[in-house]
Amino acid sequence: MTALNEGQVRPPTYRGGLHRLVATTAFLVMFASYALCESTYCAFEIRVADPSGTALDKVPVYLVRGHDTQVASTTTDQRGIATFCDAPLGLLDIGVGLDSCGSVMVREVQAVWPETRRVFVTYIKTYCKHFIFENHCLAVFRVRDETGRPVAGARFKGGGAGTDASDAFGRIFRYTERRGRLAGTITKPGYGPASVSETCVDDAEAPVVLHGQ
How far apart are alpha carbons 70 and 76 in whole angstroms? Predict the structure, then answer.
């Protein structure tokens, strides 16, 4: 032991303090681990908004495994957020939509623990036509030549309303009342005329072949 001269102060002993520091650190680590285990981990957070950025509530959101098996579903809240906490491992599809028509599908998304995977979806509320009973019917005449190539600039003369000339893809769009008849003639210089007649029960396409002269 070293003797102290008068006026000298004995340096502090750190042995006891070191033990207390180690014990405190171990306790904090155990507490943090316990808190992490006890906290709720959510795999996915899906934010749904319209094209203007407005959050959409009460929109169905669902998880699909293997592109064909729905494994979970929920709806967005007032903030436009749908949350899936207990999601299965592996690649999943996320579907958003009130109906199969116009729905949005985000393919092969995988959760990454411990972070919540956030997915942003722009969606327009759309319903299938079979739930909307419209009184009009659309027919598309696809005009081709003898080789199967589209014929642009062919003219339609007849019933219904819509476009009178075929576009670059050979399409003439005509519509009438449901179960109405679309009859007329399609012509173009250099080709023989073709007569068309369709009863428009439901939206449909009809091929038309123009033969060269």
Answer: 17
Report pLDDT digits (tens) over 39-61: 689 999 999 999 999 999 999 99
Nearest by Cα to 196 from 76, 2, 204: 204
Of 122, 151, 186, the domain-final residue: 122
The residue segments making up the domain with residue 165 are: 134-209
CA dihedral angle for residue 95, residue 101, residue 132, residue 125, rounded to 10 degrees: 50
- Write the CATH number for 56: 2.60.40.1120
Q: Which ranges in the chain belong to alpha helices (H)?
A: 15-38
Residues 111 and 140 in one domain: no
Q: Does the pTM exceed 0.85?
A: no
- Token pair recorded at residue 57: 């509530």
C-beta neighbour count of 208 within 10 angstroms: 18
